[in-house]
Amino acid sequence: MDGLTALLDGPRAREAFLLRSTLSPPWSIRVADGAALTLCTVVSGTACVLPAGGGVHRLGPGDVALFKGPRPYTVADNPDTAPQITILPGQLCRVGPDQEGGEVTPMADLGTRSWGNDPDGDTVLVTGTYQLPGETSRRLLDALPELALLPDPGRGGPLVALLAEEIVRDEPGQGAVLDRLLDLTLISVLRAWFARPGGGAPGWYTAYGDPVVGPALRLLHDDVTRAWTVEDLAAEVGVSRAGLARRFRELVGEPPMAFLTNWRLALAADLLRSSDLTLEAVARQVGYGTPFALSAAFKRVRGVSPAGYRMSN
Length: 313
Description:
Layout lengths: L2 H7 L7 E7 L4 E4 L5 E8 L2 E4 L6 E3 L4 E5 L4 E4 L8 E4 L3 E4 L12 E4 L2 E3 L6 E8 L7 H5 L4 E4 L6 H10 L7 H22 L7 H5 L5 H10 L7 H8 L3 H12 L3 H19 L4 H7 L5 H12 L3 H7 L1
Parallel strand pairs: 1-11, 2-8
Antiparallel strand pairs: 1-12, 2-7, 3-6, 3-12, 4-5, 4-7, 6-13, 8-9, 10-11
């Protein structure tokens, strides 16, 4: 399970919040839910995005915006429209002041996973929110800016159209269908973002395409409990120990065993935060022979004991 897979399959990433918004001007929504990652795409009409860092970005049909939390941002018909509602953690809504100089139609429930101020509004947005991706996806999230824009029309292709169509249905298994459609859309967007010139992809992400380091990374991700050594890993890949170590550090930015340690501890952190497993059970699942070995490594790398980490989360 690599970092991209972990983002979508982590302990708190499933059942992402999904909403279809249908809007007519004037409208302005301030989002302060603290979500780790939110995908917003324009199905029809236009929207303006105002991130916490300042600036105004205009979106049209097919354009996609990725917001990395936790700082708030605003999505509106026009940058001068005052926020009429604020989305808080837990998707709670707080009504803001009416826009000066005119009447404002309140936001309301418009049906299954639908919301807005006009069921026939020209602007339709689809929003998917991942509230709490875990430590295993931290390296991926750290590589993203606070706002990532993919402004090419049709970027989402048929996936966005299908997501917009399916989001308003209420049939058996619909939650699973929507989760998978959102995941596929997010994967497509992230791949496109990191494939850009200067996309800033993490070293391990680009290294997956390397004929030497890519297979080594897959082995470490897929068999984390094995007592790996650099020699064993090199033998599996079919290269020399020195050749693998040099190439791995060059592309990933750290030695293979350091990468493995950090990956194991990230998995352990997610298990500690999201489950009631004993420390012994966590240690077994992430490749440590004893709870003491896991505790020593966790404290050395993260500066806190596993018990302390669990209590703080």
